[in-house]
Amino acid sequence: MEPTPEQSPHHAYPDHWEADVVLRDGGTARIRPITTDDAERLVSFYEQVSDESKYYRFFAPYPRLSDRDVHRFTHHDYVDRVGLAVTIGGEFIGTVRYDRIDDRGRPASAPADEAEVAFLVQDAHQGRGVASALLEHIAAVARERGIRRFAAEVLPANNKMIKVFRDGGYTQRRSFEDGSVHLTLDLEPTEKSLAVQRGREQRAEARSVQRLLAPGSVAVIGTGRTPGGVGRTVLRNLLAAGYTGRTYAVNRAFDEGLATLDGVPAHRSLGEIDEQVDLAVIAVPAHRVPEAVADCGEHGVQGLVVLSAGYAERGAEGRELQRELVRQARSYGMRIIGPNAFGIINTAETVRLNASLAPESPARGRIGLFTQSGAIGIALLSGLHRRGAGLSSFISAGNRADVSGNDFLQYSFEDPDTDVALLYLESLGNPRKFTRLARRTAAVKPVVVVKGARHSGTNPPGHAVPVSRIPDTTVSALMRQAGVIRVDTVTEMVDAGLLLAGQPLPAGPRVAILGNSESLGLLTYDACLAEGLRPRPPVDLTTAASPQDFRDALAEALADGTCDAVIVTAIPWVGENGEAETGDGQVLAEALTKAVAGGSAKPVAVVHVEIGGLAEALAAASSTAAPRPRTAASRTVSPEAGADRAAATAPEATNDRAGTTTPATAAARTGPTAPGPATATAALGTPASGTPASGTPASGTPADATADPETPPRPGRIPAYPAAERAVRALAEAVKYAQWRRQAAVPGKIPEFLDDTIDEAGAAALIEAQLATAPDPRGRPLTHDEARELLGRYGIDVRPTLPAPDPEAAVAAAARLGYPVALKTTAPHLRHRADLGGVRLDVADEEALRRAYGELTDLLGKPAELLPVVQAMAPRGVDTVVRASIDAAAGAILSFGLAGAPSELLGDTAHRLVPATDRDAAELIRSIRAAPVLFGWRGSAPVDTAALEELLLRLSRLVDDHPEVVSVALEPVVVAPQGLTVLGASVRLAPPPARSDVGPRRLPNY
Q1: What pTM was computed for the model?
Q2: Would you call the peptide bond into 697 cis, given omega within 30 degrees of 0 as the criterion?
Q3: What is the average per-residue pLDDT within 911-934?
């Protein structure tokens, strides 16, 4: 929509204000500027607003809008007068408008920085969070246009509108004047307003996924008339799973006389169904999908699972079809899983939904699974089923054009039926948001991720998301910082998921090993050492050990305070006739389960070699206990979660549609539930249930939850592994995650002393001046002196260098700086390459300096090519490199490593997201493999790591305060036993890249 010249002579239509948003109930809507073309929509909208709402808006009866009103409300200059509308199906459901005013309340232009704001929401859509979303967006628009405050007049009886302003989190002032409430809101975002915004985002996005996973009715569009085919397969799977809602088969090619198909009602269109359908599974050719989506939107369908292929995986033309599909669905308020999806599963007893191509619905369990690949989804479902594990939910998102892994994290965070979230990802559409959500979720339950397409530098076919250029090692480090358990293969993901879902978190790295095979015990011992664990010497029970011997030994290990976890190794017994007895798995499983039931809360894993039925028996032995009651309100929220996490646990309103519940109401379900392989973990209230002695809650288990007193304690599912290395690797991941959880409970801080030594305003002025003179609009690198000045504003002192274009200049520079000095080349191809002979250190006097100068020019070239400089020598120490850079997708990243070719060749560099805390800085320098060099390796003197941590914090603060600083490299940084010296610095300034994680809530558009 383009404005007329009369409407906006100087400002074009601001299409960047357009946004798709998720409302409180999980439906979507579109926010956009109002234009002159909206006159009829505005009139139609106003006619559907109640007289009471009109009275609240205009403070008097106002039954209809005059032509003058319509003109005024549809003509804006997008600067001093702005109107936004929320639309569903192209029609208005809510509007907001601001008019810039002066200090007397009269119409004004800039530099006046206050505006009067007013809202109107259709009564049928009140309570959906429409006004709250509009406030976020109109406030962002106002800030962009130089407006700093909103003023609003509200009638005292208009409690809903007063609540919208009060709950926004902005600093506000209230007064009562002339019979109305006068509100003034400062629009500068605050910590509270950001927390409120993210809390609303979490609840809305979680609810949108919950609506997809717990529909009251499902229609399969494209159900074949004959057996076979995608649609008919999904219908069969829905029925086989025992779906508790209503099911419909839809195909426009059905004969008019066909009433049922496979026992469910058959219809030619959704319009023939006499109730509103919640979820539609679309299995028609791509060219017919728009027709099906329109039919769904016009008949109130809440969400879509699009199995149809032929979209972005087919190239540019298919990518545009995919974008149009998303636009069409969102215009009706619907979210999409897919296209090219495999389907969704929800094993909750009240739902039992298998709207997928998986022929067998998994057992009920405590693991949530999200995958961007149908093939990988099939493999994971098969692997979990083969090992006796169950799922709480499953989403295979295909091209993930809409619902993504971020949405799944929002849902998993508060889903009471999920203890562990497993994600197979091939692309990250919004890495900043992913790390934020993952950190919050990991604070209460494990998040295990496998990242595909790690080294290609491109997205897989069908994934139309921005490509991040940061190396995979950096991605892995950032995930670790967020508490994500990053593994390399789907097998490792299943291994870790089974342990985390069924066992308590370990209190430390000490591991007891026991079993009936000395060799298998030694293999396990070696694997523990390789993974950084601290194993005790294996206890060999000998091949004659009976199941009772295993039980006694395990009970003793669990009672031993010197170990934090136990690995049981077992091989088949050898009978009197010399043949292996492989059928005793049931007996051994019972013995181990009884030992765990009576022991303390420590994780137990079993490594077995060809013991028939052991894994199945271990799963069955712990699959009969019902999960203990859990509510969202009782979840322990760690300080790391922040205020937005606390807000996110607030219960949602109950959905009045039959067959659907919100996460909060689901938590209040009572009564027995279907058994699942890992449900016993949630059923325990005694220490054996999964609360380690250290106080770390078990996976996904609230620390303050209590067991049903009528439910006897039962052990968690004991995972079994066919190889020692796999069991140990899963345990090692649990140890690292538990350590992160304990640390995350007390978040790091940014030291206050930084504020006293930082000149933020001065740095901003320098940056503005440098960018103003940049010939290239993409920015420019700073000279050495400019970089020194900027870094100095943040307390980072760079040792000066003096140019030495000839020997005489070098001698004069050395005399000025004082001997001893260093003579260095600064040509780009020789910089930081001491191995090429471009550096001479400890030059003691003039004679030595002239000799060194001659050697450099004879060896490497003319002074004009080498660009030599002279610099005063720094105290001896360890040469390190500190860098900060901005990735458009991931954000600002702080990096650290030792200087030199070996570290670069080995990729021995650690990374953390900015802003970094004191804990992040300390972990950063200790994360590299060469870290012992800093702490007195082989008798050398330890260096001043406190000074190094302070440098990291100062650089982090610089790039966080000034996003125009897109790249900084401090190299080398010589860290001595006392203090450090920054010898070289390079800084690049550029207009900051657009950030996808700030501003008002919006769904991505790829």
Answers
A1: 0.82
A2: no
A3: 92
